[in-house]
Design goal:
By secondary structure, the protein is α/β, with parallel strands linked by helices. It has a domain at 3-155 and 192-236 and 284-303: 3-Layer(aba) Sandwich (Rossmann fold), CATH 3.40.50.880. The protein is built from 10 helices and 12 strands. Strands 1, 2, 3, 4, 5, 6, 7, 8, 9, 10, 11 and 12 form a 12-stranded mixed sheet that branches. α1 (10-17) packs across α3 (47-57). It is globular. It is found in: Cytoplasm. It comes from Echinimonas agarilytica. It is an enzyme of class 2 (transferase).
Length: 313
């Protein structure tokens, strides 16, 4: 699939070097097709790194995608150059009048922060509610998945005594669901979080289904009945080195973190990571784009119907 992103975005050079088809702005403008419009709300501190991870995941279908990058507010970033944000990111006020075929909201390192203490919590709730009327299908990752389940369904997260960190086996629980097409019965996914969602609380809502979970990491994939909302508790988009970088960062800060489980060869950091999650990560994003963005979105986005009303807080 060609992803249409700005020529000067750092991800363009990185992904082109990985033999991923990135379509330049000039060529994209000459294509006589209606591309999918996908909005990415990037909440991670290292935005360039996360951009590359997400865009890589969007690159494995024959669909053309136009991508808009969104920032949650105008606070100065400590980890991303302001000139990068000014050049490539939009504010919510710049996009709130638009409709999108799909939206991805990333995780954020806020697992131990109370909802009301998150500095952009009010804006976050506004965007989650806005997506119900302006986006055909929304994919929430990790912290964003927990925030959306709380905002939309009143399902609160539970803080664990220790951080879940590592790569864990998962089981498919809903084999006939389109999102699970092509999945093995057992597959691996990276996790890096302090919170989890109780499966019984998900089951109490007739509109939600657990598609996959893990004995060690708990609930992983939750989808609404219509498939327009997908909640992903892990990080299928992670690069091979991401958990290693997090572990070394925490060690350097004197935090004495546990070694990420099932991640290093022989569970020894000096042996480097064993990568075994990327095929299913790519498959998840491809299935989402195909079955719940491309095949369900109206050709004319002005005809987009709101998501069915939920028992919102």
């Amino acid at each position: 699939m060609p992803i249409n992103i700005p020529d000067r975005l750092p991800a363009t050079q990185v992904l082109t070097g990985e033999n991923i088809f990135v379509m330049g702005e000039q060529r994209a403008s000459s294509q006589n097709i209606r591309p999918l419009n996908v909005l990415i709300l990037n909440l991670m501190p290292k935005k360039i790194e996360t951009e590359i991870q997400i865009l890589r995941m969007l690159s494995n279908t024959p669909l053309q995608i136009d991508v808009d990058l969104l920032r949650i507010d105008n606070r100065v970033s400590k980890n991303t150059p302001e000139e990068h944000l000014n050049a490539f990111y939009r504010t919510f006020e710049e996009v709130e009048h638009k409709n999108y075929d799909g939206m991805i909201i990333t995780g954020a390192p806020l697992g131990l922060v109370e909802w009301e203490d998150v500095v952009f919590w009010d804006r976050m709730k506004t965007i989650i509610d806005w997506a119900n009327t302006h986006v055909n299908a929304t994919l929430y990752l990790c912290w964003a998945a927990h925030a959306a389940l709380y905002t939309l369904y009143g399902i609160d997260r539970h803080i664990r005594k220790s951080k879940i960190s590592g790569v864990f086996q998962h089981q498919v629980r809903y084999h006939n669901h389109p999102l699970m097409r092509g999945f093995d019965d057992v597959f691996w996914v990276p996790h890096s979080r302090y919170a989890e969602i109780n499966a019984a609380e998900i089951a109490a809502h007739n509109d939600l289904h657990v598609l996959a979970d893990s004995q060690q990491a708990g609930v992983y994939l939750v989808a609404s009945n219509d498939g327009r909302q997908l909640f992903v508790s892990g990080h299928p988009e992670y690069d091979p080195e991401t958990l290693d970088n997090e572990f070394k960062r925490d060690v350097s800060q004197g935090l004495s973190p546990d070694v990420p489980k099932n991640y290093y060869h022989g569970d020894l950091p000096e042996n480097g990571p064993l990568v075994r999650w990327r095929s299913h990560g790519n498959l998840l994003f491809s299935n989402w784009l195909n079955y719940f963005v491309y095949q369900t979105t109206p050709y004319d986005l002005s005809q987009l119907k709101p998501v069915a009303d939920k028992a919102m807080l």
